[in-house]
Amino acid sequence: MPIYDQTYRKYEARGPMRSVRFWPITREALRLLLAKKAFLALWAACWLPFIGFVIYLWGVTQFAQAPQVAEMLPSGAQVFGRYFHFQILLVFILSTFGGAGLIANDLRTGGILVYLSRPLTRRDYVAGKLGVLLGLDLSVTLVPALLLYLVALGLAPDRYLVWSLAYVPLAITAYALTLSLSASLLLLAISALSRSARVAGIGFFGLIIALDIVRGVVGAIYRWPGAILLSLQANVQAIDNALFGIEERAYSIHWAYPAVVLTVLGLACLLILRTRVRAVEIVR
Description:
69% helix, mainly alpha, 284 residues
């Protein structure tokens, strides 16, 4: 009987599994992170602003009859924007400790070659790693912010259960995704540029702080409102202010400019990931 030449054929997963092939990567990484007590303590600390805002809302509404106290009640959607101001730095810290080694460790140990030798595409690999950071960040941004909205409805329905504030849940979701996705993509890109989780973590957090310092110096010297475009932290806070109606002189620039900067940054990070995540190792 004739023998036919059989070339390499890529393994294809079963139909129901093709869209969720990234999930085992996300699940196992989260399992390893949540098994660390120190990381759980850090994650719990990210919920402290939520507890503080709940106590604040409760205290003010209990004594709202006094005129001087009634003025302290946050107006409209601004309370949620103020809450997110506290979460920005906490998200960066949580991301640093939770995701600095997601790709760097695989590059150091050669694990990335093992991943991509299986029925996983580069997109599956990146989606799995990105899912880890998004899961962590959304758990301390989207979830507590929506709970805070429900608390506000329960404590002060006359102020928050109104048609004019019906957009607040959508604004919370949009901003939580913006903040989480921006931080996650940047951290993964930096992690893909290093073989050390420690170097990647220091590089990510150092870059965040350095850009914010540069923004402050440039803004102070040139009195240029567009200086906020130089800082990731300032860009996401500008989006926050725009969504929740917070007016700050330092963030007077139109929200469209920070949105463009964050979009370009995200695309640049994806380009880095496309370049660095590959199934072959090139030795020079």
